[in-house]
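As a warm-up, study this chain.
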Amino acid sequence: MVGIRKKKQVDTSDVRLLQTKERPRYDIKAALAKATLVFALVYGSIGGFLSAYEIAYQKEQCILGIFWLSVLLSAVYETRRNWAINLVNILVFLLYAYVAFQRFWVINSGYYAVVNHVLEDAGRYLGVTSRTEYALVVDNESVAVTGFALLIGMVGTILLQIRLRHKASLWMTLLLTFPFYAIPFYFEKSPNVGYMMLLFIGYAAVAAIQGTNIREQSAKQAYDMLPVITLFVVVFVQAITLILPRAGYASVVRANAAKKAMEQKVANVMQYGLFSLFERGQNGAGVSGGMLSKGSAVMPDYETDLIVRYTPYSYDPVYLKAFTGKDYTGDRWTSADGADAWMEQTVAGRAARYAHDEPTDRLIGYALPDVTVGERDVPSDGTGSASGQSCGVMEVVNVGASASYAYRPYYTDYARRDGIMDAEYVYFPPVVALQDVTEEVDGDYLMVPESCRRAVERICGQAGFSGTPREIAAQVTTYFDEHYSYTLRPGFYYGSPDYITHFLLESKRGYCAHFASAAVMLFRNMGIPARYAEGYAFTYEDIILDGTLVEGADYADYYSGYSPIGETALVELEIADTSAHAWVEIYIEGEGWIVVDPTPASNDEEERSSFWDDFLNRSEDGGGSDFGESNVGAYIETAASSLVFILSAAAFVLLCYFTGKNMIRRVKERRLPARERAGLEYRRLAAYLSRKNPEFAVLRTIKEQTEWINAHCRRRFTEEQGAALYELFFAGEAASKTDVQWEALTKHCSRRWSFRVR
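Now compare it with the structure written out below.
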């Protein structure tokens, strides 16, 4: 009889049904909220940077491009389907590559346009005279900048979307966006307050999402928090603006001394590049006595050379001449003895012509009665009679300049001065053009040496100089400005061909000595007597920005007669070696020798006001970036400027600390027995997996941990390694493994990055 097989009874009392993971519903509102958050961060950083430098670009295109890309990525990422996310990432990357390739020259021109603006403003801020400028292929700069901004916005949007998909991290968000503000803040440029609001709303939202410690739900968190955070940031910033006025803020936040100390190093690096880190191939600034440098760069020390006290009388630069060059020998100028005899004779003649009505101690014998000249030469300014001649006293104190020269203003009474180191000169400012000045000019001032004749004739032929001496002088200056570049790092020159030929035909870049030397030869070739001059020069802007009023000084003791800018005051100015300069003197029949400065200068035109308005208002913000109606930008600018340097210094210190600590720890661990090192690495692995996976954190036994790792991670533990772990922690002195086996286990556990969850 065939028996009937009974089914085995299974105890199901301990069986737990696996819960199926329900896919969350698609939330379009959350996706839009996350897109808005990413847009605020990306456009707030890029737009803020461009607004700080007042760079024109097409805002509508940037807003639409960045926002809709952010919407696309957020919408796809919210599906949580890896295949869709990866496909969109690949398509966006291909789009990025296509745009970069097809519009390369537009984007490249946009990048160069941004760099030009930054370098120009940085040079103005640091007092660097370099005129390095990149040429643009695209005529419309705003179109080029828009293309560059869209490309950068595309990259930023992709990176932030990826970052926020996995985990909201304020530190990583700052790293991706705040560098756009660090450069403007360093140079005290203020982004528009609207962009700053966008960026800080984004930072606050990311910080709030990070604080919830919820992964994979950044979009839902953004939807819940973004409206409240936006309102809070706007109200908070406006409240700070009302509570702390700008004047009060300035008294609380002081100037950053660390930043000021670093500015000179930054200026050197900007001016000379990496050459500023080395002394080889550099030449010091100051008067060289006609020696033409062949070094790679001029490296000033920015220390004070002269202290000048005088009463400003004109908007024109003031030249203190120390050396006059006559003959060019290929690498230097010989001194022109007696070159200033005409000036001494002119001064002596004028001093004898005029009597003093009310003598003073300083200007006795030089004060001028009312001598009226035609309105064509000196228009009356309503401040008093216009005199055809004026007289002043200038004190020149030599602090660090060469003691071999006297630094004299033009039209100086050479008989009335005290020594060379500390000189007090009586001078006659050229407030009107000289007339009926004659001199027998030495024929050497028309000589062009054979070493540079061909180069000089070639340039004169190409440029087509013609006209009166003054017209030719203007043409030469314009030609240099359009075809040559000013730089203090022209590169090495070894003497073949000669100095002027090398500058005119080959390098086409140099500093004042290059331009002055070449200009002398161009003038001589055109039949105009010319000579080389060296000394120091300072401008009206230098007086306004850096000059200090000398208290207790009587204006009448230092100046008498007509002043084109009206009555001023005695001003003291410290002149550094950066103001050492070379220029040209040309002879014009009837006017004598006049100064021509062919070195390219700034083309910025400034509206002139009175001396007192300029001087007293020099500390006020004269425009600049659009700040909106709020002063909050000024607060953030100063605070962030200080914060950047504090954080940079702190980051460097922490980097050194943790690097040193890590090195010391590793050295100590190498001295431990092999078994102890294996246990140490496994404990680190367990801590790492606990942080990354909450499921692993609740496991308590080694068996449970190794089984979970083998089931979920890419890297596994073999049965032998599992047994070694039990022996490691529980065998005590009875452990049988060798040091080689312990080292293998240590190496296996130390590769924590390879234990990724599958």
